[in-house]
Every structure is written in C-alpha cells, then in structure tokens.
Specification:
The protein has about 800 residues and is mainly beta. About 10% of the residues lie in helices and about 45% in strands. It contains nine helices and 38 strands. The longest helix is centred in the N-terminal third of the chain and has 11 residues, at about 100-110.
C-alpha cells in the first residue's frame, strides 16, 4: 500500500528574486522477499516506511550576467524491516512453555525475546536447507536523515560562462543490521554424514554444538559530513569551439557513531613487552562495555591513546581528492559536432563500507558450546523440550576455547583512500534529417586503488596439516561426525596473528581495472507524432577486484598470494546491450491522418490514443563455478587455516572454485552448462595454483530480452480538467528473463554452485581430504525469471486513471 502527497509553493519577491519550497510525503507498507527461503511458512519480510522531504531554493539575479542560487533540503526516512513473529511468540508457537522460554532467554538474553526473529538450525548439509534466522532484515530499523545545503554562482564574462560553488551534506543513519549479526537468537548445529543430522533434529536430539552472542549491541547510530567545492569555465573560444574546464575538491569525513560503537584492529602494532602483534582501537572508553572479553584480553586502546592521528571515526580523512575535468565541443559545419572529455572522480560510498565493517565484526562476537571440553570431559547439551520442560536446546554444554572460541575481526587500514576513477570519452554526432541524429562514442575508464579484502591470518596452501587434530597436535579429529577439530600449539605458531581466529579480514587499495565501451545511438526527437531512441553498447570491462565504487569495500580475493590471477571480466556485465524506447501517436482521430472528420463520440472512443514502449536485449554475463565447504574450519583444503575463502568474493559462503576437466558449454535441455566438465577442488597445496582451477567468471550466462508497452489517452473535461486513462503492460510477450541477479547467480545462489562437500581428516597422515560430495542438480538450470532493465520477470498489466485540474 502506498500513500503520496506533494505541496509546492513558488513566490517571486521581485523580478530578480525567486523562491520555491517543495514538501513530499509518502508512506508505504509492503511485503517483499521470503523471510527465509524455502521455509514459506515464515511468510514475507514486512517493510514499514515513511518518507518526508523538504527542498527549497532561492535565486537572486544580481546583474544580467551574474546569478546566485542558494538551495537546501532535508530528507527523513523511517524504515523498519522485520519478520512476522517475535522470538518469544515463535518459541511459544512450536510448543515451548514459559519455563522453556526462560531457559532459552537465560542463554540469549531476555531482551532478545521481544525482537522479531527465530532460532537458526543448521544441518551442515545442502540436502536440507539451512533454517537461517532471517538474516540482517529480520529485525532491522533502517532510518536515514539527510540535510543538504549548497550555493552556486553563475557569472558570464565575455566568452566565459563561469560557475562556482559548493555543497555541504550531513548524513545520519540508524541501521540495525549490525545488531542481527552472528545469531543473536541462537544457532543449533547438527553435524554428520548423509541424513543423520536432519534425523537427529526430527527426534529432538541435542545439537552437536550451539552458538549465541556474548554481549549484544544496539543498532548502529552514525553520522558524517560530505563537502564538495567546484569551479567550472565554459569558454566559447570560437563560434565553433567550446572548451569546458573544471576542478572539483571533495572531502568526506569518516562516520562517527553516536555511542562510540566502532572498533578497528591495528595489525602493525607490536607489544614491546611480549612481542605479540596487533591491538584493537576504539573511539573511547564508552565502547568497552559492548566489547567481548576475548577482544579486550587481546589489548584495546582509545583513538586518542593510539598515536595514529585518528579521531572517533577510527580512520584518517582522505584529504587529497582533487578532481580536474576538461572537455571540448567542436562543430563541423552545421550538422556535425565532435565532443571529448576527461575527468577524475572519487566514489564517495567507500566511507559507508568502512563504517559498516568496523561497526559489525568487533561486536556481537559468537561463542560456541559443545558437549565435551577440550580434554573430552562430558558437558551434555540438552535436546528440544516436549514431554519434559524447563530447558532448551541452548542449555548445557561448555564454551570451547581455541577455534570455536576465537573472535572474527575486520581490520580497516587507517589510511585507506577512496578509489580513483579516470573517465575519458570521444563522440561524433551528426544530424541526418530534421529532428533526427546519429551518434558514435567511445567511453573509457581506468580504475585504480580499488578496494579488495584479504584475510591476514590465511596461510599459504601447503601439505603441512593445519587444524586436523583435537588440539594436541597428534590425535586426528573427526570433523564430520564429532566436529572436534581444534588448533594445536604448532598450528597457532604458524598463524600471523595467533589466537585471532579464522576470519581476520583486512582491506586495501590494491585493485585495478579497465573499461572500454563503444556506443552508437539513433535519435528522432518528438515530431509528427513520433519519438524514437535506439542505442547499442559494446563493452569490455575487466578488473582484479569486485569493488566498482558501490557502498561496500569490495569483495575478497580468492588467491590473496597472487591477486593478479583474478584479473578478468567483471560479473553481471553484458558485452552486448541494445536499448530502445519511443512514443507514437496513433494516426486516428481529430487532427490526425485518419478520422479527422469522425464524430465527437467516435473520436472520444478510438481517436487521440498514444502508445509508448521500451525494450532491451543483452548478452549473457559471467559466473564463477564453485563448491561449498560444509564443515571447513579449522581444517580446510590446502591447510590454509581460515574459513574466509570465497570462490566468488561476495561474502556469501566458504567456497572453493571448481577444477575444469572438460567442455563446460555442452547444453542439456534447460541446463546450459555441463556439470560433468567440473571436478572438486584439490585438498592439497595446489588448491589455488592448479592450472585446472576455474577462472573468475569463466561461465557465460544466458542472454535475455524484454518489451514493455503503454497505451493512454487524455480526455478533456471542460477547460480546466483533464482525465488521463491508460494501461501499461510489463513484459508484453511474457518472455522469461533468464539472466540471474546477484542473489541467485552469486556466491549465495544455486545457479553457479556445483554442490557441496565435507572435509575429513586422514588419521594416518593428518591430511584433509574431500568427501561426502553432494552435487547440485540445479547447477546451470534455467528455472527462474528475473526482473531487469525496467521489465518485469512476468507479464503484468496495470490500469491507470489520473485527474489533473
């Protein structure tokens, strides 16, 4: 349901002074994606949203050649995304009585009972879908407050049109995604081969391990400032040549958390007394009450004590973002023009990526309990209440140190900079007929300083076993049936940061990329009842990193020891893309080619109609074939010692790239790739370097196309009232749009996933091996249709009526 309202006031104080203010309000209630697929009984995620926007502008004509505009605005968004039941009502609904609920709350905290969400249950096998807790949107306030102010002075001096000014923006956000991290409502894990985990769950047996968080944090409450100053000169050198010269300077401050709930990790610090590497840095002492004791034990200092020249945002402000721009337009005769340009750009969204990383992993640290301690002494976990009460599946067990007790950490370099993007273009445009032109363009981009991630605790692949004993360095563990693998003293000695676990993610400006595009366009401006625009793009875009300037810090590098190996075609980028849109007045009715003399009633019914359309057609995009490891950690293929290995790099799964052993492009029905062309990865030292390792975006997905059509007509009801009646048909031909989105085709979706496997340990050699391989039957199958390019995934028809008066 959507409610909209708009109010605008314009006022001229004089001929030289104009002012306007606009207020827009909207309220939306909607239900979108499933809370947890494929468990449809949990319903759809609810979205309750309210937006209020005010914008104002005051323009003063100082002289005929000197104009100043002052503008400002405010936007307030209140958004709450949540599942359909609170934790307490969910537990009650599955048969827990009050004593059971109290026992559950004794582990997760009573405050979690009133939050939306439910427990998570893992069966450690892809045969049975993970009953996840709904993710970050299960109980998530997502409020945004934006205040803007700007001023632009325009001054025309002879052949120069000068523009100068600046913009000031204050961003503020309240985001609950950090509070949902790491199973705050509990995780029960069942391990074992084949169907045993699910059977144990159905019998109400205890899990093999249970997890929760130690110290829950509230929603992230942050703000920052953006400043931009510019000068531009449009210089008309001759009647045929115009130069555009400009310079922009941007300053983006780090985000400040109002409650100081940020924490960064300094990997370069060395304790002079102990020789231990690393320490945590927090904004102030207010942070300490929300930090896990394991983090505090590793060493914590405030920003002021660190000597790193940082403030409460825990990174330095990037102050050297000067961006020159230059362009020209040269008219060749009366019907042709050549244009070109070059510009330097800094994507500002990296500040948000820094904020999110240091507000999440340092908090809500997970603790894991098992049924035995490190010495094998029993501490039984409880099963599910049924005939007996007063306990919960989180009750009992013992908190393990070592692998299961290590925190996961993000380390953002204190001097991390914004990526650098250089864009350059050249265009030839010619008018070939009245109101009709063609255009040929080259657009190039050079990207440097792209942000990518590496795990600082990852060990180069080798055949030296790691994490394959019960912690004593000699007794083989059983990661499949018992899950008792742990660090030995020798393992810890090999870690760059001993005791800091298997997820110590750091980021740096080490990525780079290039983009080259050719574009051609045919345009017929609206005349004689027709508007038409056709364009085609041939694009080649390659990089070493997933970061393309969006709101994240970029993905992880698959082989951090040779990151250049990932230089290749970007994902979800089509090499060929055709787009067309147009408007056509049907030639029937008064004043048109046919039926100009028809009666008024006839004209009202069949005359005066207008149609509009838009269509696209594009080639397929790239996908990376991968296998998911169900039980990696601390044992892993290649003995790399971390669970952050990600074949795709988008933080979805602990996964490994497939080995290519045949022709991947043999199609079988709706399966466009040949699963028999792939093998499981190596468990040894060549897990990354084997020549058969699949390259990033090796697979080419399906191309797709779609068409939308609209029909409408204006009915004049008197002199002041116009009624517009129309219909819009999305996906006119109901053509399936097979090209997957990032959720279905990325590292968390089934489209490019070959299957999953478990890692076992050879008791005689202590080496890891891959077993219990479970192929994914849906690999490469065209099963779903996806909305894209403004075209719905299925045909939909909307009727509309608008009254203007």
């Amino acid at each position: 349901m959507l409610d909209l309202g708009t109010l605008r006031v314009d006022h001229d104080f004089s001929e030289k002074d104009h002012f306007y203010v606009t207020y827009n309000a909207s309220g939306t209630t909607s239900a979108t994606n499933p809370v947890q697929s494929p468990y449809t009984g949990l319903g759809l995620t609810q979205n309750d949203q309210r937006n209020d926007t005010i914008s104002a502008s005051y323009t003063r004509v100082i002289k005929n050649n000197l104009v100043n505009e002052v503008r400002g605005g405010f936007n307030r968004q209140k958004l709450f995304r949540h599942s359909n039941t609170t934790l307490e009502s969910f537990l009650s609904g599955i048969g827990f009585d009050q004593s059971d609920i109290d026992a559950y709350a004794a582990v997760v905290g009573t405050g979690e009972l009133t939050t939306f969400g439910h427990p998570a249950i893992s069966f450690n096998r892809n045969n049975f879908a993970f009953f996840n807790n709904g993710g970050r949107n299960t109980d998530r306030p997502l409020d945004q407050n934006l205040i803007t102010f700007g001023d632009t002075l325009t001054w025309v001096i002879g052949k120069h049109n000068l523009k100068m000014g600046g913009d000031l923006v204050r961003n503020a956000a309240l985001d609950g995604f950090a509070a949902n991290r790491n199973y705050p409502r509990g995780l029960i894990t069942y391990t074992g081969a084949r169907t045993n985990p699910f059977a144990n769950f159905l019998l109400g047996e205890p899990g093999n391990s249970v997890s929760s968080i130690n110290v829950p944090r509230p929603a992230m409450n942050v703000y920052n400032w953006e400043q931009g100053y510019f000068f531009q000169d449009d210089w008309k050198v001759t009647p045929r040549l115009t130069l555009n010269l400009g310079l922009r300077y941007e300053l983006i401050t780090p985000f400040i958390e109002n409650n100081d709930l940020l924490a960064n990790f300094d990997p370069n610090f060395v304790n002079s007394s102990t020789g231990a590497r690393g320490r945590f840095v927090v904004p102030s002492d207010r942070t300490l009450q929300f930090l896990d004791t394991r983090v505090i034990d590793l060493g914590v200092v405030t920003a002021g004590q660190s000597g790193l020249d940082i403030g409460r945002g825990l990174v330095r402000t990037d102050k050297n973002n000067f961006a020159p721009r230059v362009g020209f337009a040269l008219r060749l005769g009366d019907k042709s023009v050549v244009r070109g340009g070059y510009g330097f750009y800094f994507p500002t969204a990296a500040a948000q990526g820094i904020r999110d990383a240091i507000a999440t992993n340092p908090f809500n640290q997970g603790i894991t309990k098992r049924a035995t301690d490190a010495a094998g002494n029993p501490f039984p976990l409880q099963g599910w209440p049924g005939f007996q009460h007063g306990f919960s599946p989180l009750t009992g067990g013992v908190v393990r140190t070592g692998f299961a007790g290590a925190p996961s950490i993000n380390a953002i370099p204190f001097g991390l900079q914004q990526p650098r993007i250089q864009q350059y273009n050249a265009t030839y445009e010619r008018e070939i007929a009245r109101d009709t032109s063609i255009r040929f363009s080259y657009l190039g981009t050079t990207l440097s300083g792209l942000i990518g991630g590496v795990d600082l605790n990852e060990i180069p692949p080798s055949d030296i076993s790691f994490g394959t004993t019960i912690g004593d360095g000699t007794t083989a563990c059983d990661p499949i049936n018992i899950g008792d693998c742990d660090y030995s003293a020798a393992d810890l000695a090999r870690q760059p940061f001993p005791g800091l676990g298997d997820f110590l993610m750091s980021f740096g400006n080490f990525g780079h990329g290039r983009s080259n595009a050719f574009q051609t366009q045919f345009e017929h401006r609206y005349s004689h009842g027709l508007l038409l625009n056709l364009s085609y793009t041939l694009l080649d875009q390659k990089s070493t990193a997933l970061d393309t300037g969006n709101s994240s810090l970029g993905g992880t590098v698959y082989n951090p020891f040779k990151p250049e190996h990932d230089y290749g075609q970007e994902a979800f980028i089509s090499r060929h893309r055709f787009v067309a849109y147009g408007v056509y007045d049907l030639p029937v009715g008064h004043g048109r080619q046919f039926g100009s003399s028809m009666s008024g009633w006839a004209n009202a019914i069949v005359g005066g109609w207008q149609t509009s359309f838009n269509l696209f057609a594009k080639s397929g995009t790239g996908f990376t074939p991968y296998w998911v490891c169900n039980n990696c950690g601390p044992e892993a293929p290649g003995n790399v010692g971390v669970t952050s290995v990600d074949a795709v790099g988008d933080f979805n799964n602990n996964s490994y790239r497939a080995f290519v052993i045949g022709n991947v492009n043999q199609r079988n029905g709706n399966q466009i790739w040949n699963p028999n062309a792939f093998a499981i990865p190596s468990a040894g030292a060549d897990v990354f370097d084997n020549p058969q390792v699949a390259k990033r975006n090796l697979l080419q997905g399906p191309g797709t196309w779609g068409v939308n059509l609209g029909v409408h007509k204006d009915f004049r009801l008197g002199e002041r009232v116009i009624a517009t009646l129309g219909a819009d048909i999305d996906n006119l031909f109901n053509h399936p749009l097979w090209s997957p989105d990032s959720d279905y085709g990325g590292g968390g979706g089934p489209f490019a996933m070959l299957g999953d496997f478990d890692v076992g340990v050879d008791p005689s050699t202590l080496q890891p091996f891959i077993t219990d391989v479970n192929p994914n039957d849906d690999f490469g199958r065209l099963l779903n249709t996806f909305s894209q390019e403004g075209v719905d995934g299925r045909r939909t028809v909307r009727f509309r009526l608008r009254i203007t008066f």
